[in-house]
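Give me structure tokens for this 241-residue protein.
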Amino acid sequence: MADTRSSVVPEEIAQFGAQAADWWDPDGSERMLHKLNPVRLAYVRDMVDQHWQADEHSLRPLEGKTALDVGCGAGLLAEPLSRLGANVTAIDAAAPLIEAAKSHAEGQGLEIDYRHSAVEALDGQFDLVTSMEVIEHVAEPQAFLNSLVARLAPGGLLVLSTPNRTAKSRLLMITIAEGIGQIPKGTHDHSKFITPDEMKPMMAVAGLSVIDCEGIAFSATRGLHLSDDLSLNYLIAARHA
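Here you go.
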């Protein structure tokens, strides 16, 4: 059973769990995540290469390392992390998403330890901890971040992404994207978005040192892409202070 001490908001879990059936459909309810995932993965790969001084041409830079993906959904990031060589544990508080993730990974011939759990209920430590578009959905962001850090092994790397709380993110992600159905309606609560200036002190409280922060921007010509512009969404990498 998932632990609910700090991170799980039942209404959020129910909404995401209801989308499990077509999570892997690039034209389905999570099509925006399919567009976002390559951008997130490119950033994770870059941070991995820098943090462990890995060969940027290696196909498996995470060989011999453990990875934990928190709020994994149906496995959009967990699967490529496995292909990069990591021994992956991936958790989500929505049971239907874990079932969808297990089924898809089996079809791909991937061995991923998927668990229906909140991070607070998990034991062990991992070299790489990722949590993408999750912290803006939890009940207590600082407590959630502290729990992520508790799972981070000494010398490990933490990478998370989240929307910035700006007028631009409200317009593009809620008014437009949710309005036209690119993102399921009700996915986001703009008041729960966290700015980079708020996130960095939270990381310090959790015992982390931020090593990088990069934006995810959108343009008509390039689509979603990594950028110095943090006003829409951003990725942040950190290690133990």
